[in-house]
Structures are given as structure tokens and as C-alpha cells.
Amino acid sequence: MLQAEKRFVMTRITKITACLICICAVFGTASCGKKASLPDVRDLGQILTVSREEGSGTRTEFDTNLKVTEQNADQVVSSTKDMLKTVASTKNAIGYVAYSAIANELDSGITADDKTDKLSLSRQTADYKMIKVDGVEVSDKTIRSGKYALCRDYYVAYKGKLNSVEQDFLRYIMSAGQKEVDKICVGKKKAATFLSDRSEGTISIEGSSSVAPIMEKLIAGYASYNPKATITLKATDSSDGLNAAIRGDCDLAMSSRALKDYEKELLSYEVIGSDAIAIVLQKNNPITDLSTKQIRDIYNEKYPKWSAIN
């Protein structure tokens, strides 16, 4: 009797195991493994990698976060706008941009006050799309929680001691200005009441093209508190801005990457907000999700064709 019961139990286990194997076969590795396979991408042909220029904070953070060591992109562009334009017009391209830039690069004929509305309009109207990374969609929520893999901070840096108007502007950024930061990316702290001392003077700001749209809103917001200040803004890239601050050619530098050790020795800095690097593909590309490893291998030139990723 004991032997019969044992044979019955073993038979049941065998049947259950067989059922699980069948389920895996039907639903694929997305259910039973760590990495889901891609849809049919044979028609896409060669992978066209698009990268930002050297000196770009977005490129530096992209390479650092993904441990890209051999980046030799097929095409190099010098701005977010050029990146999105290239990817949108090239079916086999892959690129990366600041998440905050997506809403700001909409056609001028589209208007929306709320960032969520802008991103929604972008998904409906743009010829490019943001995809998931490691199964996680980029959003304010996943940036705040740290669940999205490619998060990064935004910095304002300066050399020496700030004068009165520079101090006043920086106090605004870290208090009431956080509301403006939140309109584009993710503020570093909760917005607070700000009282300006209405210092007079001129402030020159230079650096990251990713931070520049945020700084534009901060400058406009600060003007309502202190109309006596004159602020100029020049969008270049993070390295150019930091070097300009070190040389004394600008008062405040904008950076979308962490400062290097020698830059930290020469400059003081504040984190003003957080953002993420979004991976973008042409809208009709069937891929909706890539792992960090797949993205790293693509930019390290491991895969010549999209079909090779599978």
C-alpha cells in the first residue's frame, strides 16, 4: 500500500512538472526567466547607434551608468533636438535623451501646461518613443523611487564666494524654485516660501543643454521676486559650463553629470533636481523594452544587427 501511494505521488509530481514546462513554452522567458526575448526585428537590419558629443553630461552619465567602455557610435549629435530628430527619422536607430527634454521638444503648435499632459501628447504625436529599461517605465514616480535604472542628478556649480544677487538666486532655486524644477524634472526637495532681498546685479549662467530648459523657468520665476536682477543663459554642455566657471567666464555652471574630483576641488555645487536618461527608438520599432545589459552591449558594438540580440 505504501509503495502504491509513493508511485501515485511521483506520478502527480511528474505531471505538474510537465505542465510547468508547457506553460514556459507558451508564455516564453518573460514568465520563466529574467530576460524576455524581443519581437521579430529582422526587418530593422543593422543597428544605428546615435550618441551625444564628448563633453555632454548626458553622454557621460549614460556611459557611466551602463558601463559603456567602447562607444564608437554610428552617428554623433550635439543636442537633444538633433538626437530626437535623427531617431524619429531612422527606423533602425537607438538613442538616448534626458527624460525632462521629451516634453520640451514638442512641436511649437502643441500646448499643454502640465508635464504629464505634455508627455502624453508626446507619446501620441511624436515619431519617436521612450521604451522601458529592465521592464520599468521612466516616470517621475520611478525616478523618485530609484526603480528606473538610468537616473541622474542636475547640478549648479560656482567658483569662490557668491555675491548677494547670486546667493539670492540660489536660495530661490532651493526653495520656491523647486516648484519650477518639478514642472520639468523632479525637484530635490519640497518647494518652500521664498523672500528675496532684491539684490541688484547680473548673473551669467552656462552649461548643460539638458538643464537649460529648467534654468529658463527658474530665471522667469525669479524675475517675479527680484526684477532688479539681470540673468543671461547660454546652453552648451556640462563640461564647457564647468570649465567656464573654473576660468571665471561665467558665474554659475549647469551640469547634468556628477562633477569630477578635480572639479569638486575647484568648485562648490548644489544638486537642484533629479532626472533620468530615456532610451528612444523610432515610433514604429516594435521593441518596447530592453535590459541594461542589452543597451550596454548595443553601444559596446556587440550586436551588429537588431536580430542578433535574440
The rounded Rg comes to 24 Å
Inertia-based shape = elongated
Q: What profile does the largest beta sheet have?
A: 10 strands, mixed
Report mean pLDDT, rounded to a whole number: 85
Number of strands: 12
How far do the termini sit from each other? 51 Å
Q: What is the assigned CATH homologous superfamily of the largest domain?
A: Periplasmic binding protein-like II
**What is the annotated CATH architecture of the largest domain?**
3-Layer(aba) Sandwich
Beta-strand content bin: 15-25%
How many domains? The number is: 2
The count of helical stretches stands at 13
Fraction of residues in H or I helices: 40-55%
CATH topology of the largest domain: D-Maltodextrin-Binding Protein, domain 2
What is the CATH top level name of the largest domain?
A: Alpha Beta
- Based on secondary structure, the structural category is alpha/beta
